Amino acid sequence: MSTTLHVATYNIHKGFSQFAKRMVLHELRDRLREMHADIVFLQEVLGAHEMHAERYDDWPDKSQYEFLADSIWHDFAYGKNAVYPNGHHGNALLSKFPILSWENEDISAHAFEQRGVLHCEVDIPGFTQNLHCVCIHLGLFANGRKKQLTAVRERIERMVPSDAPLIVAGDFNDWHCEAGECFAQPMGLTEAFETVYGRPACSFPSKFPLFRLDRVYIRGFTVQSVEVLYGRPWSKISDHAPLSVCLGAA
């Protein structure tokens, strides 16, 4: 494996600014382009919403993930998780490289939060094996998160070869930084920011991040650089700050 890979993860807050004051999809698309990421892990992506489409004149005709992918990320996958009368939302993966297969698995821990894990297999030029990308958004309650992490771990152990490159990224809602010990370490995963700085990144709230909620766990890579994109203009787009990571061969 000789290719440098640039990945990012971002909870986009359904395309609305903090406290849902503004619809920011167009600005969000511009900012995502400026990141120049090869693969983008997205959470809280609206697949459809009839009321928003009627209310906003500049609401895209396409789904949010198609609108954001545009002509930059030629492949994309979407996992529908939360369904309600006006639409649905979930996780999405945008990729400059071919997505060979994808599956969304329901990992909801209870009826009050619909959660899923989006698992994609991506063909990266120069890689000797396909890259497995796992995009997740875990629940707000600790007991539920533990069950969800167990479900994700079991899926990876079942579906991903132990020597295949792997990235697990997203919004872990892991307020107490418990995911490393119970999830990552047993599978030989390392967290990108923890590798560089000794702890996961602060990513919430985006104006002045205090909490370490978002993660990029990797296997089969070295970390070349990491960055948290917080403050303006990012704090005007979502309540989470995006994480940017450049990876190289292990």
What's the short story on this structure?
The chain has 250 residues and is of the alpha+beta class. 21% of the residues lie in helices and 35% in strands. Strand 6 (116-122) and strand 7 form a beta hairpin.
Structure write-up:
There is one protein chain. This protein is of the alpha+beta class. It is 21% helix and 35% strand. The radius of gyration is 17 Å and the shape is globular. It starts with a strand and ends with a strand. The relative contact order is 0.17. The mean pLDDT is 94.
Ordered list of secondary-structure elements with their pairings:
Layout: E1 5-11, H1 25-35, E2 39-49, H2 50-55, H3 64-69, E3 75-84, E4 87-95, E5 99-106, E6 116-122, E7 131-137, H4 142-159, E8 166-171, H5 179-184, E9 190-191, H6 192-197, E10 214-219, E11 221-228, E12 243-249
Parallel strand pairs: 1-2, 7-8
Antiparallel strand pairs: 1-12, 2-4, 3-4, 5-6, 6-7, 8-10, 9-10, 11-12
